[in-house]
């Protein structure tokens, strides 16, 4: 029991040390006014006066992240299945996925703005990065779908579609949720990058306006919110991943 | 006699053409199979512009973009060099710091227990939030660009080094135990070499991230590089230049990814 | 261990006379391994314990080749891991000579080969065999490494990487690595378990030849009856749950050539009897 509790204990103490360190740097002013004490940031977050500003930005960013994430997941799964069902398309899709991954989101902005406008761009940036991550993890999940079972079903004369549904897809589920956990931080990041290209609302907009107006507390509060959001999405993905791993391992 | 010779010659040349034709056909087929989505995009681009009736001022065609690239190479050369320099320098430095700290943390269960969860939290801080804070801390200059890339590259290198060092097969660990190897010997002769595939994976994952980090940082805070070109041409409504620098940035990033990938393949083939 | 006539070496392709290796090895004395009432149990969930070994008392004489034979899960590998100093017994004592396994491993005096060859993929065969020198912090005796490469029949493959070799060749390299520091105790944990039957027999033959040159105190863990009877001076048959000694067989076959031996009625007698012991329920 103690050996199972120890990693949790270490981890929690590590996080506490990190938070205390951040608070001390702020309290002692070691890094100047740019690094406020964490307590100030928390107070700013809790102050009802700021809730409209932060709430609007948060709602915008989370909405973009979730819509973009949903589109990205659907597209990633679709393309991964396409590559499996129409193998001739697979080499091209694999290479294109590598290119999409390598393309810096900033560079895509001019094209995306033209296609969806400044408000739709964040959604598309999120969708693109999530598509890539899900495509890669689904493809690797579908290809590892354990060969003994594949052989069994082939011998039993199962059709391609039957085998995909009964064997390959369930076997790929753990990898899918691995991908989802990886995609979680990418969703918030993608949304805030997209917001840099002229969106009216969002955490990304707050980052820039706070920086330009020397609103250090606002900058940190917005950053803290983005981290908390990423962690919550990540936590949900990891919980789903664990549940699936228990069921399908 | 002569007749049969010429017939034979004709057959040979015909066969030769057939073979060459077949080879070209196969080559085109391979290109089509590997790059069909990109070819599709290049076709869809002008078609889509035409269908929506966009004017050149709003949306440049591939031809406009290519023309600007060819006529004004001087505009792009320096930004590309700057961006490459910062990305590669930051990548190297970040990998070094990540691997060294990863090794040190792996050697101490207490340190890894303390630091890994914190590293996870710091890892999800979006770079978009990081850049404004770091810019305020370290100034709006090129030094900050390097700091940003180092931080971005650090986390994958760090966590993959730790997990790679822990992934050593039990029989190898037993072997070093029976041979009476000390901690340092185990790290240098077993765990670190065993982590090389993971470290190379971190390099491949980080290469495009480094480029993205430099571009974002340049876009927002420093007055040099491709990110700055992207922003300044957008501000001046030079759309063909904005699109061209976006294309150049994409090409640079894909190139870095490709180089890192081929390096990874070579190194991993050597150590596994 | 029976020594084989010179004739049998003709069956092995690249064998080199090994008198020089013999000289090197004779300078180090072998040691006796002694286990006294060794038990090993592992804690399970909810306070339960799994007893892997119960009251094992066993002595492996100086220069003796002893085989531990038993079905998988009978704890025979646990005995080897305890003798190797990789695990501590829950009760009882283990001594090697007048020392402990841990002390012996600290002094780099143990040689070991596992079922997984555990050759490091980033090193060449020569570097892998020289690895124990590096781990011990000694300068590599290149001549001795080369002798061992010749001894196990890997001449010409020194600069190959493990993945370029067949399973049998990897095990040869792994055995050469186990021998390179002239260990006082040689521990072999199913060293040929991953090989096909034909390769396995050939490797048995070669190990027999190599061992008869070196005569190191050796503990072999195996589930292959033929292998145990072919190689060992004594075969210890184990049963599982909890692991305990069921029978000890002194193999006292007349010295003769390997292929003849495997066809002899005496050999089959012992093999049949031990196989019967492995099959039969414990209280039979």
Q: Uncertain runs of chain A with pLDDT below 50, 5 residues or more?
A: none
Helix content of chain A: over 70%
Task: List the total number of helices of chain C.
Answer: 10
CATH class (first level) name of the largest domain in chain C: Alpha Beta
Number of distinct beta strands of chain A: 0
Q: Gyration radius of chain C, to the nearest Å?
A: 19 Å
Low-confidence stretches of chain C: 1-27
What's the CATH H-level superfamily name of the largest domain in chain C? P-loop containing nucleotide triphosphate hydrolases
Name of the level-1 CATH class of the largest domain in chain A: Mainly Alpha
Please bin the fraction of helical residues of chain C.
Answer: 25-40%
Main sheet characteristics of chain A: none
Structural class of chain A: mainly alpha
Strand order of the largest sheet of chain C: 5-6-7-3-8-9
**Biggest interface pair, counts:** A-B, 59 and 56 residues
β-strand percent of chain A reads: under 5%
Number of strands of chain C: 9
Shape of chain C: globular
Order of helices and strands of chain C: HEEEHEHEHHHEHEHEEHH
Question: Can you summarize the main beta sheet of chain C?
Answer: 6 strands, mixed
Index terms:
heterotrimer, B: 272 residues, mainly alpha, MetI-like fold, 88% helix, C: 284 residues, alpha/beta, Rossmann fold, 2 domains, three-stranded antiparallel beta sheet, globular
Please summarize what this structure is:
With 249 residues, chain A is mostly helical. Chain A is built from 9 helices and no strands.
Describe the structure.
The complex is a heterotrimer of chains A (249), B (272) and C (284). Chain A is mainly alpha-helical and 249 residues long. Chain A has nine helices and no strands. Chain A folds into two domains: 1-33; 36-248, MetI-like fold (Orthogonal Bundle). The mean pLDDT of chain A is 83. Mean pLDDT of chain B is 84; it is low at 1-10. Chain B has helices at 2-52, 62-71, 73-107, 109-123, 127-138, 142-166, 170-178, 183-220, 225-235, 239-271. The longest helix of chain B has 51 residues, at 2-52. Chain C has 284 residues and is of the alpha/beta class. Chain C is built from ten helices and nine strands. In chain C, the strands form two sheets. A six-stranded mixed β-sheet of chain C has the order 5-6-7-3-8-9, sandwiched between helices. Chain C has a three-stranded antiparallel β-sheet with strand order 2-1-4. The model of chain C is unreliable at 1-27 (pLDDT under 50). The interface between A and B is large, with 59 and 56 residues. Chain A: It is a multi-pass membrane protein. Chain A: Belongs to the binding-protein-dependent transport system permease family. Chain A: It is found in: Cell membrane.
């Amino acid at each position: 029991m103690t050996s199972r509790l120890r990693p949790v204990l270490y981890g929690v103490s590590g996080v506490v040390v990190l938070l205390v360190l951040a608070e001390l740097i702020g309290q002692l002013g070691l890094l100047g006014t740019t690094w406020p004490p964490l307590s100030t940031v928390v107070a700013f977050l809790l102050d009802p006066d700021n809730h409209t500003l932060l709430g609007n930005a948060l709602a915008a960013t989370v909405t973009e992240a979730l819509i973009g994430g949903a589109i990205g997941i659907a597209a990633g799964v679709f393309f991964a299945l396409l590559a499996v069902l129409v193998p001739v398309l697979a080499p091209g899709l694999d290479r294109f996925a590598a290119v999409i991954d390598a393309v810096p989101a900033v560079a895509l902005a001019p094209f995306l703005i033209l296609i969806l406008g400044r408000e739709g761009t964040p959604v598309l940036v999120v969708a693109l990065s999530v598509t890539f991550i899900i495509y890669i993890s689904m493809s690797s999940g579908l290809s590892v779908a354990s060969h003994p079972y594949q052989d069994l079903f082939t011998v039993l004369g199962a059709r391609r579609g039957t085998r995909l549904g009964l064997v390959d897809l369930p076997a790929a589920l753990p990898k899918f949720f691995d991908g989802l956990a990886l995609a979680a931080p990418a969703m918030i990041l993608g949304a805030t990058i997209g917001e840099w290209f002229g969106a009216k609302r969002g955490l990304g907009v707050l980052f820039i306006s706070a920086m330009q107006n020397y609103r250090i507390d606002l900058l940190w509060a917005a950053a803290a919110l983005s981290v908390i959001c990423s962690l919550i999405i990540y936590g949900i993905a990891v919980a789903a991943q664990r549940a699936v791993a228990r069921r399908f391992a | 006699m002569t007749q049969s010779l010429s017939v034979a010659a004709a057959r040979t040349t015909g066969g030769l053409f057939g073979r060459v034709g077949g080879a070209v056909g196969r080559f085109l087929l391979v290109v089509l199979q590997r790059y069909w989505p990109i070819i599709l995009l290049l076709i869809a681009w002008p078609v889509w512009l035409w269908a929506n009736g966009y004017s050149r001022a709003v949306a440049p065609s591939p031809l406009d973009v290519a023309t600007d690239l060819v006529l004004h190479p001087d505009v792009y050369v320096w930004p590309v060099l700057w961006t490459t320099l910062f990305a590669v320098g930051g990548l190297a430095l970040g990998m070094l710091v990540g691997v060294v700290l990863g090794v040190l943390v792996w050697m101490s269960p207490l340190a890894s227990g303390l630091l890994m969860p914190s590293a996870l939290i710091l890892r999800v801080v979006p770079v978009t939030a990081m850049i404004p804070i770091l810019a305020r801390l370290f100034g709006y200059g090129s030094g900050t660009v390097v700091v940003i890339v180092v931080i971005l590259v650090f986390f994958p290198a760090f966590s993959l080094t730790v997990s790679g060092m822990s992934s050593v097969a039990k029989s190898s660990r037993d072997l070093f135990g029976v041979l009476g190897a000390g901690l340092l010997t185990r790290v240098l002769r077993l765990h670190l070499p065993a982590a090389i595939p993971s470290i190379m994976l971190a390099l491949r994952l980080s290469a495009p991230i480094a480029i993205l980090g430099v571009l974002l940082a340049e876009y927002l805070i420093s007055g040099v590089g491709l990110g700055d070109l992207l922003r300044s041409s957008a501000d001046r409504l030079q759309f063909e230049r904005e699109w061209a620098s976006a294309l150049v940035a994409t090409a640079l990033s894909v190139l870095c990814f490709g180089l890192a990938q081929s390096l990874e393949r070579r190194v991993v083939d050597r150590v596994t | 261990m029976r020594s084989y006539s010179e004739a049998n070496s003709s069956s092995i392709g690249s064998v080199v006379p090994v008198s020089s290796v013999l000289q090197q090895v004779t300078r180090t004395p072998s040691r006796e391994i002694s286990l006294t009432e060794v038990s090993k149990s592992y804690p399970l969930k909810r306070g339960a314990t799994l007893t892997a070994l119960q009251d094992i008392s066993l002595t492996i004489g100086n220069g003796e080749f002893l085989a531990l034979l038993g079905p998988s899960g009978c704890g025979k590998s646990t005995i080897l891991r305890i003798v190797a100093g990789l695990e501590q017994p829950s009760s009882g004592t283990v001594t090697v000579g007048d020392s402990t396994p841990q002390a012996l491993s600290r002094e780099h005096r143990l040689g070991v080969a596992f079922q997984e060859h555990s050759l490091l993929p980033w090193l060449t065969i020569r570097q892998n065999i020289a690895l124990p020198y590096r781990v011990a912090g000694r300068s590599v005796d290149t001549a001795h490494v080369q002798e061992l490469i010749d001894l196990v029949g890997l001449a010409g493959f020194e600069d190959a990487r493990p993945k370029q070799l067949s399973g049998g060749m990897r095990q040869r390299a792994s055995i050469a690595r186990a021998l390179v520091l002239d260990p006082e105790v040689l521990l072999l944990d199913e060293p040929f378990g991953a090989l096909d039957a034909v390769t396995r027999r050939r490797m048995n033959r070669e190990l027999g030849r190599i061992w008869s040159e070196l005569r190191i105190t050796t503990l072999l863990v195996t589930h292959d009856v033929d292998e145990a009877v072919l190689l060992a001076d004594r075969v210890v048959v184990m049963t599982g749950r909890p692991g305990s000694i069921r029978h000890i067989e002194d193999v006292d076959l007349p010295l003769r050539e390997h292929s003849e031996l495997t066809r002899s009625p005496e050999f089959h007698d012992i093999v049949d009897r031990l196989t019967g012991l492995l099959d039969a329920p414990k209280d039979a």
